[in-house]
Amino acid sequence: MQARAFSPATTRCRKRSPQFHKEYLLSYGIYIGRAHTADGLPYLAGYGDEPSSHWLEIAPRQSHAADATITVGVTPAAEMPGVLSQIPQVAETARHLRVSYTHYLGVPAPLTNGGLNEHGVAVRDIWSTSSAALIEATSTEQTGPNYSDLARIVLERARTAREGVEIVADLIARYGYSTYGGNSHIFADANEAWVVIEFAGGKGLWCAERLGETSIRASRPGYIGVIPAEPDETFLFPPHFISTAVDLGWYDPATGPFDVNAIYGDGKGRWEGVQWIEAEMTRRAARPEKIGIEDIVWSIATEKLTGDTAGYGQIVPLVEPAHPDLRVMWHAAIGAVTSPLTPVFMGMEAIPDAYGQHRYLSEEESARFLDRRKELKNPQVVCRIPQGIESGEGAVYSFKQLMHLAFQGQSSILPEVYDHWRLVEGQIRAELPDVLRSAEILLAAGEVELARKAYTAFSHRCMSDSLADCAALAAAAYVRLRAKGELNMTSVPVSPLQIW
């Protein structure tokens, strides 16, 4: 079935300079293989670097009609324009946890950088720029799934990380790929992970590298280096991947092996921050105690890596539980440097209202009202967020307040806040085994609803208590800074020095 375009193929938009991609936000992902961890589990962790609202949500398992379709791609208004199209939906999509957001370079919202599905496939989305030549070659009429579409579709359909790669490969081959300049994903399950890079240029170029139990891999941006001449069990790519570069005069096989980053990417290899965090985690893995959960938390929470651009944090233990409902994704409402990671269960009944979508930072909400007086003349002026939600607390806004207070007191308040959340996480981890055991007993007895009530109540309590702590910490921090005359009233924000 061919993709069906919504707008004429004659649509034209002015392309922007290929240099604009240097200003992109990156996001961050890190995979730790089971051979390096104290508990023998692999982990996928990271955060989304996005300039808009974020909210946590549960997407239920759904059945779809035989002729159902989904809308994918980008519009003519996107930074790198294209044409929206429809592609077939599958008969059933999997239940999954994800974080959604409302804005990035004109790509249609809602967007997602990934999450975890009921089959145990975890997804992270990380920027990975293509070469300037590939960006320049991208048509203004590009069609096919965008980066967010791919992340969501893999969560909806994949039963393994390898299948996630195959889904992306098939979609690009059939329908194309709508790019904002190049991108990458990490797909992971309990057995393996794959780094997948999708390239700009409209040539159907992608490449994947397998990560295993001895791997420690950070992506920011995503990278793949030297690959063999033919696909194997470690590297996958389409048949024309290398020959395209030969035909364009970008690669001569006589000069040596094919370096993906050098030929199709930015040519920079592993960036400084990636080298630093991979080396640090490798050092920790070499200790007798190996890498513990505290180390993995640190890898996405340290102020050397995590600041205001980190919209949220996630850690997924890639475990095979007794029941799919008991898969857990640890979630931080903002960057974990000043926010706790709390457990979210696959089978939870609902997400707390405070962690759902609010108007704060939501695209276009600054021009909307919780008022219907002008609705007949212009329906777009009515707020899309339920009034009841907007009447309550917003976790992202509250934790952001605390972050910026802590950043104004980097020598005193920041370490106190950081240490407090690590203590809270430790207390939650101490309670978690009993919660899981209780749920397992109930599920084994067929009491699915009782089990869901139990772990939903536990998760909600963790998130509610953390939000209350946040309010107390923020109030105390504000009073201290004000009394010391250290509130930053200039237009120049202060924050810890980050390596990236």
TrEMBL record:
<dbReference type="GO" id="GO:0006508">
    <property type="term" value="P:proteolysis"/>
</dbReference>
<keyword id="KW-0224">Dipeptidase</keyword>
<dbReference type="InterPro" id="IPR005322">
    <property type="entry name" value="Peptidase_C69"/>
</dbReference>
<keyword id="KW-0378">Hydrolase</keyword>
<dbReference type="GO" id="GO:0016805">
    <property type="term" value="F:dipeptidase activity"/>
</dbReference>
<keyword id="KW-0645">Protease</keyword>
<dbReference type="Pfam" id="PF03577">
    <property type="entry name" value="Peptidase_C69"/>
</dbReference>
<dbReference type="GO" id="GO:0070004">
    <property type="term" value="F:cysteine-type exopeptidase activity"/>
</dbReference>
<protein>
    <recommendedName>
        <fullName>Dipeptidase</fullName>
        <ecNumber>3.4.-.-</ecNumber>
    </recommendedName>
</protein>
<comment type="similarity">
    <text>Belongs to the peptidase C69 family.</text>
</comment>
